[in-house]
Amino acid sequence: MIASSELILNPDGSVYHLNLKPEHIANDIIFVGDQNRVEKITQFFEKIEFSTQKREFKTQTGFFKGKRMTVMSTGIGPDNIDIVMNELDALVNIDLETRKPKENLTSLNIIRIGTSGSLQANIPVDSFVLSKYAVGLDNMLRSYLIDEISEKNLEEAFIAQTNWDLRKGQPYVISCSETLEQKIESPRFHKGFTGTAGGFYGPQGRVLRLEIQDSELNSKMDAFEFEGTKMTNLEMETAAIYGLGKLLGHNCLSLNAIIANRANGTFSADPYKAVDELIAYTLQKLSE
């Protein structure tokens, strides 16, 4: 039995942070970071049967072309993903009344839709990136036992090529769900390594008034390559999603519309168009 202090429920029986009960979510879930982007997706639903919000976690469940789906905002960062993934798993794989894990476990399909800037000149604005691998630069996932799911050869290559300072913690590499990759795949997607940072400024190489530990880290990451695969983009959630997804038995995939290209300094003339196209494509594939 899982203690009340470990799995916290609200007075109405919903999980603490997400404010959800098991019947409120579908098996196919789309993550967005910004709560205002939830309705940018659910506006295409024929019907919305449930909607709630607590803090930055906004959830809507409804139907697209007859397929039941949930859209949820996670907020920013690996710490938020730790909350979202664990509480979603509890909704489907723990009996909230007996507080015991279920014998028959459910595997959710989780796709993150985001926007990002590309790190490579050959990944132009208005294109799509599919994160084949995620490189976790944060330490959150190291709180769990990840040796069986991490790509150790890729981790070692990244550490060596970037001369990573292990005082910041050891980076980890997790692959995407092959099942979802095959379902979503399109020639329009560029594949590679997505870096997941634990912050927006220093952890991503931005300098305002504070010096950072490695001023050359971004250029080192841009140059990182393993068997022809390179870094595509940098954000703050994907590695945590992939890692917890694999540990808990869920299928996870991260997709990004590229609205800027850091390598050549370009920005999309119409960033909303690329995002809308990625949303429409993903909804269609999930409904099939």
Automatic annotation (TrEMBL):
Gene3D superfamilies linked to this entry: Nucleoside phosphorylase domain (3.40.50.1580)
Reaction catalyzed: uridine + phosphate = alpha-D-ribose 1-phosphate + uracil
Enzyme Commission number(s): 2.4.2.3
CDD domains cross-referenced by the UniProt entry: UP_TbUP-like
Domain Nucleoside phosphorylase, chain residue ranges per copy: 29-274
Group of enzyme by EC: transferase
Pfam families the record matches: PNP_UDP_1
PANTHER family: FI09636P-RELATED, URIDINE PHOSPHORYLASE
Protein name: Uridine phosphorylase
Species of origin: Flavobacterium aureirubrum
